[in-house]
């Protein structure tokens, strides 16, 4: 099974210092949803792993998070794509959970749900903790220069990133790179 694991805020949609608390505040990045659909059409399944400490901080509730994800699924679906599953950490930074990235708990949940060995599965995000969490279970780290990483454009990669991190301008560039590297199998005649 071909699987990629994506961060949400700053990777698929615009990051917000005030947290994305409602469907209205969830705004996709240019080309990101099309990129997910292109990955799907090339045979890739897409899972999302996202820290949502706004839940633990009481900034929004699970019903709002579900509504945000319903909007995301609908928008991807309108482009002929599909996000298979969204895994989120609801905890605050002081709760000592195992699922808040950079801890690998969300990735372990994804591996179990899909029955996939995560070694060599690409992980895409805009912060070191996204990639550190994935690398802990053997994923291959890909940074997109959107969201929190937009300011890194033209600069050397800080040492907080895994040393084998591959850098792409955005999710669309990542998708192009992955699809060119691993062509889809030929369609049966
Ligand atoms: Mg992010
Ligand atoms: Zn957690």
Automatic annotation (TrEMBL):
GO terms for molecular function: D-glycero-beta-D-manno-heptose 1,7-bisphosphate 7-phosphatase activity; metal ion binding. The active site is at 7 (nucleophile), 9 (proton donor). Pathway: Nucleotide-sugar biosynthesis; ADP-L-glycero-beta-D-manno-heptose biosynthesis; ADP-L-glycero-beta-D-manno-heptose from D-glycero-beta-D-manno-heptose 7-phosphate: step 2/4. SUPFAM superfamilies: HAD-like. Its EC number is 3.1.3.-. Mg(2+) binds at residues 7, 9, 126. It catalyses: D-glycero-beta-D-manno-heptose 1,7-bisphosphate + H2O = D-glycero-beta-D-manno-heptose 1-phosphate + phosphate. GO terms for cellular component: cytoplasm. GO terms for biological process: carbohydrate metabolic process. It is found in: Cytoplasm. The record marks 100 as: Contributes to substrate recognition. The record marks 50, 101 as: Stabilizes the phosphoryl group. It is an enzyme of class 3 (hydrolase). Zn(2+) binds at residues 89, 91, 97, 99. Pfam families: Hydrolase_like. Keywords: Carbohydrate metabolism, Cytoplasm, Hydrolase, Magnesium, Metal-binding, Zinc. Its main location: cytoplasm. Its cofactor is Zn(2+); Mg(2+). It comes from the Bacteria. Belongs to the gmhB family. NCBIfam families: HAD-SF-IIIA, Histidinol-ppas, PRK08942.1. PANTHER family: D-GLYCERO-BETA-D-MANNO-HEPTOSE-1,7-BISPHOSPHATE 7-PHOSPHATASE. Monomer. This is D,D-heptose 1,7-bisphosphate phosphatase. It comes from Ramlibacter monticola. The gene is gmhB.
């Amino acid at each position: 099974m071909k699987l990629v694991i994506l961060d949400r805020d700053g990777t698929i949609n615009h990051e917000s210092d005030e947290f994305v608390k409602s469907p209205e505040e969830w705004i996709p990045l240019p080309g990101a949803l099309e990129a997910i659909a292109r990955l799907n059409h090339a045979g890739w399944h897409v899972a999302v792993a996202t820290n949502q400490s706004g839940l633990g901080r009481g900034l929004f509730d699970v019903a709002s998070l579900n509504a945000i994800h319903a909007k995301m699924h609908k928008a991807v679906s309108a482009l002929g794509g599909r996000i298979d599953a969204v895994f989120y950490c609801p905890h605050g930074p002081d709760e000592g959970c195992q699922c808040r990235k950079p801890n690998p708990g969300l990735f372990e949940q994804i591996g179990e749900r899909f029955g996939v060995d995560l070694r060599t599965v690409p992980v895409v995000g805009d912060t070191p903790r996204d990639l550190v969490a994935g690398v802990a279970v053997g994923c291959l780290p890909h940074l997109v220069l959107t969201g929190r990483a937009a300011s890194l454009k033209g600069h050397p990669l800080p040492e907080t990133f895994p040393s084998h991190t591959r850098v792409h301008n955005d999710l669309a560039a990542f998708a192009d790179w992955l699809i060119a590297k691993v062509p889809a199998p030929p369609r049966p005649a």
